[in-house]
């Protein structure tokens, strides 16, 4: 009551000299009884206590200003003042209902909202903001409630997995309280409210549940096939309790090294194991409900392969020791080490020894070192490459496992020439050649001389062969005939491109005149019309036929022995060569009856030679 609200002012255009005409008096025409105004100061104040914004937020007050001190005859003016009540936090939040009911499936995901509650506050802005908490109930650790900043709702979410078979319902007590509290109104009561929330869990068809989230099995690498490595168990958490079948995800066991009993989940060995190849095997076991194959669970199973002593120790690398000829007795020639693929719990411990027949070796001995290595020592000095260049020393290596395993490694010891400080200079076999008196360079020179002599002999024989061949034609082969040599034999009838047809032509017959050089003909004949040179592309067979036709129709053709050169014999000709160069000089030894068997082309030639034979007989 009487709280200052605002002050208004009015102006009068009259001159103050008129006395009271400029004196203004203010009054409220509308807005009573909520507000009052002082007539002379124009200060507006509340006229009622405990004004409620939630009941009415805005007021319109009409103010009148009258001059002449408010007396009769004065002029007046009015204005409207809008007064808005500002909010204070004088109202607590209130739930719309005291009891909320929600239901949720037991397989709901964690963090998933299952319901909303809301506490209404008549205040606005910051005064209406509330926070929600679960203050009581049997599900305080299973559920949580958060505030939606936009709608000011309380959102209930799941914190832990639900299980219908374990607990079917929960009861929570939820509280909503104002965040910003005005101390002036604390006497009005607590600025908070509570409500009860009941949550019912509904049954869902859940996948099988394994008795353990992971399994660890151990097996020795020499375990027998089909031996049981371990067992996994699972059950259906639903009330119906469907039977479970087990299987191995073969994507995790590509080599199919393990099997599982589908009924009881016992894992067995299907193939032999080798720890040295793979120490761990990780497989996945699948559990499936028989009544609903879509309900599937998986669990990882780690199988550790335990070591057994099944590998013999051996040299860590192939060793080759070098022994100086000028070495001293007791000198360490080589230090060797051994490795074992097995992995005993207490580490490796190797025993070294010589073969029984090598125990009394006159040249070398061995000594075990503290670091599990072995030293090879020379028993005496005076080793010589001339006497023996390489020594082989078999060494037996044994481990301390159960049962103990052993192997024999051979150390190659090569005798070498060394400098005075023990640096190896040469380990080859040159020492064996030196006593003969010839060095390696001399041997190479001798070998080169032998090769040179062989080359000279071959060249000499080749030249002698060429020298024995005759350079001129023998008398009995000189038939006084015109002979033209052709080195190009051609490729037969099918080959028309391999040689030049012009080489078959008689150079003297290009102009058509073919004179005889051995016997002058009795008849004179007219020269034949010469043919133009035949181009290279002309068929050889056609060319020979033309020449044969000219010879057959030539009246001056000799009935005596003559030479007609036919360079084309044809491929696979049964007649063989037509040349008489290889024939005997004596016609008496010739029988030309076979010419009549060669066909029409040689008929005329056969008749001529037959006539000649008959003349001789007469």
Descriptive tags:
10% helix; Immunoglobulin-like; elongated; 618 residues; cadherin binding; mainly beta; repeat; glycoprotein; calcium
Compact description:
The protein is mainly β and 618 residues long.
Q: What report would you give on this structure?
A:
There is one protein chain. The protein has 618 residues and is mainly beta. Among the domains are: 3-84, Cadherins (Immunoglobulin-like); 94-202, Cadherins (Immunoglobulin-like, Sandwich); 209-306, Cadherins (Immunoglobulin-like, Sandwich); 314-426, Cadherins (Immunoglobulin-like). It is built from 4 helices and 33 strands. The strands form 10 sheets. Strands 25, 28, 31, 32 and 33 form a 5-stranded mixed sheet that branches. The protein has a 4-stranded antiparallel sheet with strand order 7-9-12-11, with no helix packed on it. Strand 31 and strand 32 (406-418) form a beta hairpin. The longest helix has 29 residues, at 440-468. The termini are far apart. Residues 17-21, 430-436 and 581-587 have low confidence and may be disordered.
């Amino acid at each position: 009551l009487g709280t200052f609200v605002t002050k208004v002012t009015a102006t009068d255009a009259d001159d103050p000299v008129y006395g009271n005409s400029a004196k203004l008096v203010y009054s409220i025409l509308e807005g009573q009884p909520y507000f009052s105004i002082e007539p002379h100061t124009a200060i507006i104040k509340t006229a009622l206590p405990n004004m409620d914004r939630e009941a009415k937020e805005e007021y319109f007050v009409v103010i009148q200003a009258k001059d002449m001190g408010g007396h009769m005859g004065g002029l007046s003016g009015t204005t409207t003042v809008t007064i808005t009540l500002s909010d204070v936090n004088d109202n607590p939040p209130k739930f719309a209902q005291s009891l909320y009911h929600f239901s949720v499936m037991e397989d709901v995901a964690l963090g998933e909202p299952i319901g909303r509650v809301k506490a209404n506050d008549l205040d606005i802005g910051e005064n209406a903001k509330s926070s929600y908490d679960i203050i009581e109930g049997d599900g305080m650790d299973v559920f949580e409630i958060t505030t939606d900043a936009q709608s000011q709702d309380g959102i209930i979410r799941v914190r832990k997995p639900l299980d219908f078979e374990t607990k079917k319902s929960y009861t929570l007590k939820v509280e909503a309280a104002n965040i910003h509290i005005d101390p002036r109104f604390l006497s009005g009561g607590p600025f908070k409210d509570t409500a009860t929330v009941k949550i019912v869990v509904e049954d869902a068809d859940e996948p099988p549940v394994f008795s353990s989230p992971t399994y660890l099995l151990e097996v020795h690498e020499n375990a027998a096939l089909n031996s049981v490595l371990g067992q996994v168990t699972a059950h259906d958490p639903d009330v119906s309790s469907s039977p479970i079948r087990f299987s191995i995800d073969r994507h995790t066991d590509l080599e199919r090294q393990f099997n599982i009993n589908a009924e009881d989940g016992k894992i067995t060995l299907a193939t032999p194991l080798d720890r040295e190849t793979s120490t761990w095997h990780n497989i996945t076991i699948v559990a499936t409900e028989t009544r609903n194959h879509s309900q599937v669970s998986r669990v990882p199973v780690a199988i550790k392969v335990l070591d057994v002593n099944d590998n013999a120790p051996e040299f860590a690398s192939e060793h080759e020791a070098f022994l100086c000829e000028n070495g001293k007795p007791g000198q360490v020639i080589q230090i060797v080490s051994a490795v074992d693929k097995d992995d005993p719990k207490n580490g490796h411990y190797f025993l070294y020894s010589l073969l029984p027949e090598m125990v009394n070796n006159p040249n070398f001995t061995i000594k075990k070192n503290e670091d599990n290595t072995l030293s090879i020592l020379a028993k005496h000095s005076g080793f010589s490459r001339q006497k023996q260049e390489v020594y082989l020393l078999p060494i037996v290596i044994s481990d301390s496992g159960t049962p103990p395993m052993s192997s024999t490694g051979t150390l190659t010891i090569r005798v070498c020439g060394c400098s005075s400080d023990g640096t190896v200079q040469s380990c080859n076999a040159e020492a064996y050649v030196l006593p003969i008196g010839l060095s390696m360079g001399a041997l190479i020179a001798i070998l080169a001389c032998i090769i040179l002599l062989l080359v000279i002999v071959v060249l000499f024989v080749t030249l002698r062969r060429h020298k024995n061949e005759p350079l001129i034609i023998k008398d009995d082969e000189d038939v006084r005939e015109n002979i033209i040599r052709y080195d190009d034999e051609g490729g037969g009838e099918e080959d028309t491109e391999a040689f030049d047809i012009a080489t078959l032509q008689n150079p003297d017959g290009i102009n058509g005149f073919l004179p005889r050089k051995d016997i002058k003909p009795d008849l004179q004949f007219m020269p034949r019309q010469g043919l133009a040179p035949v181009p290279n592309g002309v068929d050889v067979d056609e060319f020979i036929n033309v020449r044969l036709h000219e010879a057959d129709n030539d009246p001056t053709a000799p009935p005596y022995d003559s030479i007609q050169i036919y360079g084309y014999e044809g491929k696979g000709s049964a007649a063989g060569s037509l040349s008489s160069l290889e024939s005997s000089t004596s016609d008496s030894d010739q029988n030309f009856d076979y010419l009549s068997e060669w066909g029409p082309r040689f008929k005329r030639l056969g008749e001529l030679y037959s006539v000649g034979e008959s003349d001789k007989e007469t």
